[in-house]
Amino acid sequence: MSEETPRSQPDDGDGGPAPGRDDDARAAAGKASLEQALRDIGGAGREGLGAAADAGRALRGLLLADLALARAALGQALIWMGVTVAFGVAACLLTMAALIALLQTLGMSWLGALSITAVTCIAVTALGAWMAVRYLRHTGLDATRRQLRRVGLGDDEADEDTAGARDRDEEPRA
């Protein structure tokens, strides 16, 4: 839009401006203020769009970092699951055989010898399972889900229920 200059009106003879001149000046000022308001609204819209794009980039970065953490945690969990299986099967069988033979030579009954070896294997298996679950908690993308909840996305009730249960089981961090 181009600004129009107000038309000059001849004086009415008493030294003051002509009566139509005030109306033209007000119309030009109103038009200029409307143009400025539209420019301000457009600028605010561009700033808002830029802020939304920055927030999207930040959320994308958080998601990528969270996925990298989850991938690393999943690898650790698989390692501990392998340890659990190894101790749960191979070591337990070998230990049971050796311990049962030892307890039998010391005069213990078959039931006592088998019970002691079974408890030992169960304890090692429980330790491995506990470590695997501890690392698998990192695959829940908690930071991303927390940020999505902050911006109003996601199911708050289901996430809070699982997060609350997870927080009660989790050890405090220093």
UniProtKB/TrEMBL annotation:
Keywords: Membrane, Transmembrane, Transmembrane helix. The keyword Iron does not apply. Residues 1-10, 163-174 have a biased composition (Basic and acidic residues). The chain crosses the membrane at residues 77-103, 109-136. Residues 1-32, 154-174 are annotated as: Disordered. This is Membrane protein. The lineage of its organism: Bacteria, Pseudomonadati, Pseudomonadota, Gammaproteobacteria, Lysobacterales.
